[in-house]
Amino acid sequence: MANTIRAQLHEILDEYSKLTLQIFSELSSGQAAAATDLMGKLIEKDKELNNAVKELKKHQEFQMKINQTIKDIEEKDKKITQVMQILRDAESILSAQVEEGRKQLKIREQSKQSAPFVDELVSYSHRISATTSAPPGWSDGQETFLYKFPAPMETEIRSGMLYSKEAEDLFKT
């Protein structure tokens, strides 16, 4: 017999059809004994054919399972590919963040090594504040104030918009 199920079925069907033709030719020639012999062989071929068909059905079931497994594997491969892409994206984002963190850490380390003292900063800012900005309402020719009191002085209050002579009279009485 042949190796594949298909070849086996073709071979059995060819023999089945030859036996059928021989039976009809024997019956038409009138030899019933030879036809009976051929009928026995035809029944055996029919059993072989049924067995081959059963084997073919099993083979088809296995092939369907194989095809389904292949589809499942392809779906899993697609999901794995998607997860891999997500992980690659996350890796690139994280590596960028790590690199940024390293830069920040390097800057902090450098600033710690060359950190000026707070007193020096306050002293320097106090020195340059009188020369870099003018107080509100200052015009050219006025004297500069190196130090201003934390509360307004009486002259400043009287020159303000909220001050009125009537309010001063109320407080005196």
TrEMBL record:
Database matches in InterPro entries: Mediator_Med4
Keyword check for Nucleus: yes
Keywords from the named record: Activator, Nucleus, Transcription, Transcription regulation
GO biological process, one term: regulation of transcription by RNA polymerase II
Coiled coil: none
A Pfam cross-reference name: Med4
Cleaved signal peptide residues: none
Subcellular location: Nucleus
One MF term in the entry's GO annotations: transcription coregulator activity
GO CC term, one of those recorded: mediator complex
Function: Component of the Mediator complex, a coactivator involved in the regulated transcription of nearly all RNA polymerase II-dependent genes. Mediator functions as a bridge to convey information from gene-specific regulatory proteins to the basal RNA polymerase II transcription machinery. Mediator is recruited to promoters by direct interactions with regulatory proteins and serves as a scaffold for the assembly of a functional preinitiation complex with RNA polymerase II and the general transcription factors.
Family of this protein: Belongs to the Mediator complex subunit 4 family.
Assembly, per entry: Component of the Mediator complex.
Protein name: Mediator of RNA polymerase II transcription subunit 4
